[in-house]
Amino acid sequence: MQLNENKKIAVITMARNDEFFLNRWVGYYGRQFGEENLYIYLDGLDQKAPAEAGRANVEIVEKQGIKVVDAEKRRLDFLSDRAAELFSAGYDLIIGCDADEFLIVEPNLGLTLHEYLSRIKINTSISPLGLDVGQHLHNEKSLDRSAPILPQRNYALINSRFTKTSIVAKPIRWGRGFHRIDGHNFHIDKNLYLLHLGNIDYEALMEKFNSQDIIARGEQAHYKRARFSVINSVSDGSAVDGDKLFAKARGIQTFFRPIYAWNKPSMLGMKWIVKLPERFINTGI
Predict the structure, then answer these.
(1) Which pLDDT score, from 0 to 100, does residue 218 have?
(2) CA angle 171-126-268, nearest 5°?
C-alpha cells in the first residue's frame, strides 16, 4: 500500500435515545478523524445533544417516522442526502454507520483507520466484515458502562447483516440500515471489521425492548429475532478463534447472495461464533 493522499473523511449517523453509544461513537471516531468531521442527526425534536459531543456537528431534526420500516427508509434517504452534501463540501469519503457500530482496521497493520482508508483505492464503496458482538451469559458479567467495552466482551457472531456498505467514495443511495446501496455491488475489504455492539448487555437490551419507543415502532419482533438471538447464539454456541474463520467468511459473503437481494452478502444461514482476537482490545472501544 502506498499513501496516495490524506483523504478528508466524514462520519455520519442518526440516532434516537442512544446517548451511551453516541458518547462512545464521538470518542472513537473523533480520535480517528477529528470531532469536527463527525455529523450526528438526532431523530426527533425531543432529543438532546449527547453530553460528550465535543466539537461534533449535532443537528436535531423532525422525527423520521414511527413504524420501523417507514422510519428506516426515511432515515437512510435523509442520510444519503446529507452524504451527498458533504461530498459537495469537499469530503473524499463518507462513513455511514449507526451509533452502536464501530469500524476498525486490522490492528496488525499498525495503521490508524484514517491512514488505511487514505492508502486504498475505493471506486464506489467498500464493506468491512460484520461482527455482531454479544454478551456471553455464562462467561461474562453485566457491562461496566464506565469502562472500555472490548475488554469485557470476547465473543461475536459473524453476521452478514453487518457487512455493510459503510464507506462510500461518491454520492449514493443507501438502503435501510446501510446494508446496501442502490444499483451497486459491494466489495469486502480484507483488513476492515465492523463491530456491532448493540447486543453487548442483556439487561440494557431488555430495557430497550420494553421501552415505549420500541413498542411504538413495532420492533419487538425484530429484537427477538435479531438481537436476543445473537446473545443466545453466542452464549450457547461453540466459539472458534476468529482468525480461523474471518477469511472464509469474507469468501462466502463475497460469492453468495440472498435470492431477493443480489447486492447484499449472505452467510447461507450458517451461524459462526468466534472468539475475538486479543489484539482487538487495544482499538480504543
Answers:
(1) 81
(2) 120
Using DSSP, state whether 236 is helix, strand or coil: helix
pLDDT digits over 124-140, tens only? Answer: 999 999 999 999 999 99
pTM above threshold 0.85: yes
**207/261 Cα distance (integer angstroms):** 33
Other C-beta atoms lying within 10 Å of the C-beta of residue 65: 15
The DSSP secondary-structure symbol of 109 reads G
- The pLDDT of residue 68 is 64
The partner residues of 199 in beta bridges, in order of sequence, read 134
Please tell me the distance from the alpha carbon of residue 124 to that of residue 276, in angstroms, as a whole number. Answer: 29
Q: DSSP secondary-structure letter at 241?
A: E
The residues pairing with 134 across neighbouring beta strands, listed in sequence order, are 199
Burial class (CB in 10 A: 0-12, 13-18, 19+), 262: exposed
Handedness of CA 191, 285, 54, 65 (dihedral sign): positive
Residue 126 near residue 240, CB atoms below 8 Å = no
The candidate with the shortest Cα–Cα distance to 50, out of 65, 35, 64, 62, is 35
Q: What are the residues facing 125 on neighbouring strands?
A: 168
